[in-house]
Amino acid sequence: MNWAKTKKFWQEYDDVCKKYNYMSPKQYYRDFLIKRINKKTIWLDAGCGWTITLSPKLDKKLVKKAKQVYGVDVDKNIHKHTSIKNLVCANLENIPLKDEKFNLITCNFVVEHLDDPVKVFREFHRLLKKEGELVISTPNIWAYDPIFTRITSTKFHKKIKKIIWGSEEEDTFPTKYNANSPLKLKKLLTETGFKEEKIQMLHSSDLFIFSKKAFILSVIINRILDLGFLKYFKPNIFAIYKKL
Length: 244
Description:
Blueprint (H helix, E strand, L loop, with lengths): L8 H11 L5 H12 L5 E5 L9 H10 L2 E6 L12 E4 L12 E7 L8 H11 E12 L4 H7 L3 H12 L16 H10 L2 E9 L9 H13 L11 E8 L1
Parallel strand pairs: 1-2, 1-4, 2-3, 4-5
Antiparallel strand pairs: 5-7, 6-7
């Protein structure tokens, strides 16, 4: 039986997470937004898809809490977004918004899909006010998750994403991994006028959510990756960069 489809799933999931001190990248990102968004935040969610945190209730609270929120995505179905009203359908390499408009840009599981991350980072730099923050959450190419996605098809990714996170298939895009290591990300962002404020390597076990035993084993393996240099093999990167 698929554990993720059982009635007890979410309670058991929470219990396992607490027992092994596990927080998924999506939970980490959600908690960051709750603390970071305030009445002065002028926020662009780049590659916004149709949702911010997968929780419509929380998303609406975050949008209401901020001073102004925009979403931009190449997806022609961007109008289906559950909470952001100011929506722009555009390629991230050329966003039709004025210079220095935002003090926060978020890019949640988007960088791995970029054909030319340098062009996108330059566009983010143009759109941010001085000392504005760019927040990136993305897979680490040196971990097992990206290896798995590189040897499987986009069609398969769509099915897995729908099962695990409830995403629609048309909201899933091919992965490129052109900036997906801590060093590569830092190099490209430094070249485009950003300074690293924080980088955190995160656990990720949600790929194994189909089985409780597999999920627990993955959580334990991720705990081992906390040791020394092994942290650079953790599956996800959470980074905050500031515009110089």
